[in-house]
Amino acid sequence: MSNAFYDFTGELRRLEQDNLYRYRRVVDGPQDIKLNVGGRELINFCSNDYLGLANHSEVAAAFKSGVERYGVGSGSAHLICGHSSAHHALEEELAAFTGRERALLFSTGYMANLGVISALLGRGDTVLEDRLNHASLLDGGLLSRARFQRYRHADSADLQATLAVTSGKALLVSDGVFSMDGDLAPLPAMVELAEQHHAGLLIDDAHGFGVLGKNGGGVVEHFGFSQDDVPILMGTLGKAFGTFGAFVAGSEDLIEMLIQKARSYVFTTALPAAVAEATRASLRLLQVESWRREQLQKLIRRFRQGAKQQGLHLMDSFTAIQPVLIGDSGQAMVASQRLLEHGLWVSAIRPPTVPAGSARLRITFSANHTEQQVDALLEALDKALS
Ligand SMILES: *Cc1c(COP(=O)(O)O)cnc(C)c1O
């Protein structure tokens, strides 16, 4: 029997020819600086575990005792019988951490963004998004059925011009730290524009929490912005927190609205309570152990200084995301492969994750890296890119 529906060979071959085919590598053992891949040890420069908490003994212990107390599965959605005291305590602690009235847990960041935007906007409204926003923010905007407007990356003048011709209810949406560039949203200008135009403001700080701000409060702490300035604040727990899941923090009414209306909250299983327990441990470490942020900044400075001396094309970032721009997808793949031969795992990021012609090596740092490892990376980059 032949059914043309299942004939994917043409499309798959095209992806391969365009150097856009994606592969998975199987990792054995815990997420850490050293990863075991097929019996080989690779130094990890591609994870989002910026503070080195994904395999922290206290986080793992909290997870295990969470399983002892709550079992594994949460059994149902939060609105049925899956909302445990562990989830509830974590929400209260995240609200306190972010200085917001309340916080609401979602099972993933992708789902949080789909849920929030589509709960707050509908047909006839407008969503304004930075061109380089994370796919989940773009998809949330499309799902909401609101008029979809993209503005130039981190360009508040373009945002202002777009807002000027927008009528009705509007929501400004941006990454706080851009996931593939490492730079920041122009938050002060966005806060002002949202206020002037009575628009909503949603900031997704997946890559800022834990990394930026004295207490790890992310981009809003970095700029000193309160709930009044940035009323809808989203964070993920699978990056610097080292666990899994996501949250939205804001006013009492905002959170109640999301509980009623966010479909990706209502119609999905609550994440395991033990994950919430593990996250409570990582939230404590993230706040108390500020040396992790300091160590990270030290490594980032060392890398940037060395990379500039070597003439690498860096981007405007002081966060843990330090891309080296290559341009061509094939060349980015080759560079990544050469680094692998030196025992370093750095991922090549290609379209459609980044705009056409801007393929790059996305290097990420962790507080658990050593200065020697940064130096080894610089040396290998020098060879791989020459
Ligand atoms: C990773 C990421 C997400 C998705 O979060 P998950 O919990 O991995 O689903 C959303 N937004 C940004 C900016 C991200 O980097």
Automatic annotation (TrEMBL):
It comes from Methylomonas albis. It is an enzyme of class 2 (transferase). Substrate binds at R22, H134, T353. InterPro entries: Aminotrans_II_pyridoxalP_BS, Aminotransferase_I/II_large, AON_synthase_class-II, AONS_Archaea/Proteobacteria, AONS_Proteobacteria, PyrdxlP-dep_Trfase, PyrdxlP-dep_Trfase_major, PyrdxlP-dep_Trfase_small. Belongs to the class-II pyridoxal-phosphate-dependent aminotransferase family. BioF subfamily. PANTHER family: 8-AMINO-7-OXONONANOATE SYNTHASE, CLASS II AMINOTRANSFERASE/8-AMINO-7-OXONONANOATE SYNTHASE. Its EC number is 2.3.1.47. Its cofactor is pyridoxal 5'-phosphate. The keyword Glycosyltransferase does not apply. This is 8-amino-7-oxononanoate synthase. Residues 41-381 form the Aminotransferase class I/classII large domain. Homodimer. It catalyses: 6-carboxyhexanoyl-[ACP] + L-alanine + H(+) = (8S)-8-amino-7-oxononanoate + holo-[ACP] + CO2. Keywords: Acyltransferase, Biotin biosynthesis, Pyridoxal phosphate, Transferase. Pyridoxal 5'-phosphate binds at G109, Y110, S179, H207, T236. The modification N6-(pyridoxal phosphate)lysine is found at K239. GO terms for molecular function: 8-amino-7-oxononanoate synthase activity. Catalyzes the decarboxylative condensation of pimeloyl-[acyl-carrier protein] and L-alanine to produce 8-amino-7-oxononanoate (AON), [acyl-carrier protein], and carbon dioxide. Pathway: Cofactor biosynthesis; biotin biosynthesis.
